[in-house]
Amino acid sequence: MQIAEDAVVVGYDGSDRSKAALHWGASLADLENLPLVVLHASGVIVHAQDKGVGNFDAGRANAQAQKIAEHGVELATKDFPKVEATTATSLGSASLALQEASIRARCVVLGNRGRGRISGTLMGSTAFNTSEHARCPVVIVPTAKADLPGPDSPIMVGVDGSEASLRAVDRAANMAGYTGAPVTIVVAWSKATKDALGNPPSGFASVDEASEHRKAGAEHFVDKARARLLERTPDATVELLVETGRPDEVLAKASADAGLLVVGARGRGDLASLLLGSTSRAVLHRASCPVTIVR
Predict the structure, then answer these.
(1) Structure pTM?
(2) Which CATH number fits domain 8-141: 3.90.340.10, 3.40.50.620, 3.30.40.10, 3.40.50.12780?
(3) Averaged over 238-262, what is the pLDDT?
């Protein structure tokens, strides 16, 4: 499978959701003058032995996959004729094909669900597995919002002081520079509570004092993120949002009015061994706008 360096790779299967992802990916490729690769994986090889047992015609399966990918290229170049678009195909699963493509890609873009058997799920297995294992940023696009952010469609970026969230800030800064979209930096914090014996958290005279300390920490995170973003994109319009609540709930609520939500793959509270943190997982399921997962 040949993938151009720094290409925008879109997973395409002909479904409405993949068409939304294709539109988003082609828009990005056009805006940033990047190559576009439309990838279709037929999924006929599930296990290693499938290739040699003769359960399918490899030539026919590949020809069908190529036809679907070419259809995606036709759609993309119709709307964005200046984009250099090519196809890529695989007989394996979409998840594995996209993970392989992510090694060379600038980003991978796909719909939140494809043609899987369980249409009622909030996010399909391909979208989830790709978000968890890809080597580059992954963008999950819902059908309802397939346009890039812009002056009237802000970028929301979640921060918590972790390195991953700071890389998310860098990604948001780059997108703001290309699209002219304003950026809102979002942080969530939780109020302190008494322990089982009715005492305030250790080191604090009262629950209120501990809560003020947590709030000050959250404000420090957004101030640091704003300085970093403006260093990369000095002309960006930046707002700060410091909210109490669960991070995934705060971010999901913020995404209702956003053109793009950018989050790090793992935050401060996640185990280092996790490929995708709990907040990022939850946001993928709940956000109502395109979500970029940054490693």
Answers:
(1) 0.88
(2) 3.40.50.620
(3) 93
